[in-house]
Amino acid sequence: MGKLWGGRVPKFFATTIAATMVLSNMSVAAGMPKQILNDMVNYYVLGDIPALKQYIDVRFIGYQSLFDTMQIAVNQEAQVRIFFSNIKILNGRSVVVITTNWEKRYLLKPTMTPQLKRGQVNLMFEQFNNQWQLSAISGNNPFTH
Questions:
Q1: 15-139: CATH number
Q2: How far lies 72's CA from each of 81, 105, 130, 140, in Å?
Q3: Rounded Cα distance, 39 and 41, in Å
Q4: Quick check: helix, strand or coil at residue 53?
Q5: Is the peptide bond before 110 cis (omega within 30 degrees of 0)?
Q6: How big is the CA angle at 133 (ends 28 and 84), to the nearest 5 degrees?
Q7: What is the C-alpha to C-alpha distance for residues 66 and 7, in angstroms, rounded to an integer?
């Protein structure tokens, strides 16, 4: 389906990237936000929302609301898989924007009913003090229910 963006994903979870561009030609600036997105997805599917906080800028508008929504979602979802496709990356010196389509499959608790959600999201990462953090999300957020 695509190249896995690294990370620590248990065997029963899958974070698959079906890239439509050559990832090896990306600049170094885009590499770190790509890894951060992968780590965020891994923590999300594990339900470890507190670990996600390290990757999100505290100046993010709706910071606490985002985490509250994520926590509700992970409490209602089981066996989450998020797939990305049609990835486009725009990068500058201290800003990277990742635009991608996504598909999320999970079982809705407590009935364990299969669910399928799709959308497109724009994720903006900014570099502050040599650290990349997510600073904005627009479109359909894959980290919510």
A1: 3.10.450.50
A2: 17, 16, 32, 17
A3: 5
A4: helix
A5: yes
A6: 70
A7: 23
Per-residue pLDDT tens listing for the chain (145 residues)? 333 333 443 333 333 333 323 333 334 455 688 888 899 999 999 999 999 988 999 888 888 999 999 999 999 999 999 999 999 999 888 899 999 999 999 999 999 999 999 999 999 999 988 889 999 999 999 998 7
**Tokens in use for 115?**
């669910």
Domain-wise residue ranges, the chain: 15-139
Residue 125 in tokens: 């990462």
Cβ–Cβ under 8 Å, residues 16 and 2:
yes
Spatial CA neighbour of 93 closest among 123, 61, 122, 125? 125
